[in-house]
Write a structure and sequence with these properties.
This protein has about 525 residues and is of the alpha+beta class. It has 4 domains: about 90 residues; about 110 residues, Beta-Lactamase (2-Layer Sandwich); about 110 residues, PAS domain (Beta-Lactamase, 2-Layer Sandwich), CATH 3.30.450.20; about 100 residues, 2-Layer Sandwich (Beta-Lactamase), CATH 3.30.450.20. The chain is built from 16 helices and 20 strands. α14 runs antiparallel to α15.
């Protein structure tokens, strides 16, 4: 059957014809649109692009310190569980590195309802907009690129941190460099380049800074000290180098320790000087550290204590040191050996406080003075001095004084002696009896005027006493002077002033009628 379109259309009215044409056009447009949508979805499925354009803004809404709403991809970063900080503090800590002008509290000024903050870095085009709506605060973070906003923000932060760390390493005042396993420097900071410029013309700067011959894989970290000698143009410099093994080489840094090395050298020289000085001392020296072990001694200690150098160089403990002294009979034998340890602890405590000073009388007849002195960091030093000659001289001097006093006491005339400063040095027993002075009274602080007042109280008349005082005080010549005094209960007494050596003088009261003294007066 033949379908004649023209025959059928000829039978249609104008309205039916327009309706048919319109339907045909609509059907064609619908088909084209459907084909376009299917084509785009297929293309997006192949390219992985989302159906909807990714957002470029993140909106946060705060009711005072409390977060009311936030993008879903930010919620993990804003979780405050187990934290003392508020929601605002958590978000502010994350945004502050990029936007340093972010308010400390979630509010704007009294007359301010909107504020726009730009990012810190010039290459960061992010913008943070703040709008105050009553007690609520709306923050809108707009990024310059589409994508996950939380990831964009983290990427910006990481980039800034990387730039900061790069700048930090670049301008650190210590040389830092990276080298391969062959010793070739791959990266270096400004301090390393400055070191290269200072040593220009010398051998390679990385020799001996680098130890490229190190092949042991079980040593991931190396630390060593080296010296750089700029061939006499500059003073030598010392560095402590730290090298950490990485996959393709080493990461290294060097700390200038020239001042430390020089200080250590000066300290060693100082210790050597002290050691030489100690070696020439006649005083025995024993120094114990804070752990109470012997760390230093001099040859005089060996001579005074008879301890062997082998024992002393073995760094004995302080208790063992004094045990050996007791065994060598170089210290007094303790009366109670059971309490010897307690006495030793008391000795150490007293030395640590600077209070220990004893005189040891040894069975051999020698006498030692032992002194304990504290030093910084818990160090204690003991000094051993042989004072046998000093003690013998002191004893002889005391014997001579006793002999001189006995001679004066044997003289029947009252005698008193004043030194060059006018202090009473000696007086005999007859003088004490004459002026009723207690035999045990100390007269070492009595001056001429004090003695003169005693004489005046005893005298019945002041005749000659004034001239006697003037002569004793001024001592116009080196000639003897004699005068007669009248003393109560005694009568006439011949007073004679005799100059002695070194500016001293003696006053002799010669009793003219000693036999006439009452018995009770002589007994006094």
């Amino acid at each position: 059957m033949t379908f004649d379109i023209g025959t059928h259309l000829a039978g249609l009215s104008l309205y039916d014809t327009l309706l048919a044409v319109t339907l045909s056009v609509l059907l064609s447009l619908g088909s084209i649109g459907l084909i376009t949508i299917v084509t785009r979805r297929v293309a997006r499925a192949h390219t992985g692009s989302p159906d909807v354009a990714a957002p470029t803004t993140s909106v946060f809404l705060f009711d005072e310190q409390r977060l009311v709403s936030a993008p879903a991809d930010w919620r993990d970063n804003l979780d405050t569980a187990g934290q003392d900080a508020s929601d605002w503090d958590v978000l502010r800590r994350q945004l502050l590195p990029r936007f340093p002008d972010l308010p400390e509290l979630p509010e704007l000024g009294p007359d301010e309802t909107f504020r726009s903050l730009k990012a810190r870095c010039s290459d960061d085009h992010g913008v943070l907009r703040i709008r105050q709506i009553g007690r609520r605060l709306r923050l809108t973070l707009r990024e310059s690129e589409a994508g996950s906003l939380v990831h964009l923000h983290a990427a910006q932060l990481n980039g800034q941190r990387l730039d900061q760390m790069t700048a930090l390493v670049e301008y650190l005042p210590i040389p830092i460099w990276t080298m391969d396993t062959s010793g070739h420097v791959l990266r270096k900071n400004a301090a390393y380049r400055a070191l290269e410029e200072q040593l220009e013309g010398s051998s390679d700067v990385n020799v001996p800074l680098v130890r490229n011959g190190e092949t042991a894989t079980d040593r991931p970290v190396l630390t060593y000290r080296i010296m750089l000698d700029p061939r006499g143009r500059l003073p030598e410099r010392w560095f402590d180098v730290s090298a950490r093994r990485i996959e393709d080489g080493w990461q290294c840094s060097a700390q200038d320790v020239t001042a430390l090395v020089r200080a250590e050298l000066a300290q060693r020289n100082f210790v050597q000087t002290l050691t030489k000085t100690f070696a020439q001392l006649s005083t025995g020296l024993a120094i114990f550290d804070r752990d109470r072990q012997l760390i230093l001694f001099n040859p005089s200690l060996v001579d005074l204590t008879s301890l062997s150098p082998e024992f002393l160089t073995s760094r004995p403990a302080l208790s063992h040191f004094f045990d050996h002294l007791r065994d060598q009979r170089i210290m007094p034998e303790p009366k109670n050996y059971a309490s010897w340890r307690e006495q030793l602890n008391a000795l150490v405590s007293a030395a640590a406080d600077g209070r220990y000073q004893k005189t040891w009388s040894l069975p051999s007849g020698a006498t030692y003075r032992v002194t304990g002195r504290p030093h910084p960091n818990g160090v204690v030093a003991f000094l051993f001095e042989d004072i046998s000659d000093e003690i013998s001289m002191t004893r002889r001097f005391r014997q001579q004084l006793s002999l001189s006093q006995s001679v004066l006491d044997a003289i029947t005339d009252p005698i008193v002696i004043f030194d060059a400063q006018g202090l009473m040095s000696y007086c005999n027993a007859a003088y004490r009896r004459l002026f009723h002075i207690d035999p045990d009274e100390d007269l070492s602080q009595v001056v001429i005027r004090d003695a003169h007042r005693t004489w005046c109280r005893k005298a019945t008349t002041s005749t000659g006493l004034g001239e006697l005082l003037e002569r004793l005080l001024t001592r116009p010549d080196r000639q003897d002077w004699t005068h007669t005094l009248q003393l109560r209960d005694v009568g006439e007494v011949s007073c004679r002033v005799v100059p002695l050596v070194s500016g001293a003088c003696m006053v002799n009261f010669g009793l003219m009628r000693v036999a006439a003294l009452p018995v009770e007066t002589a007994a006094e």
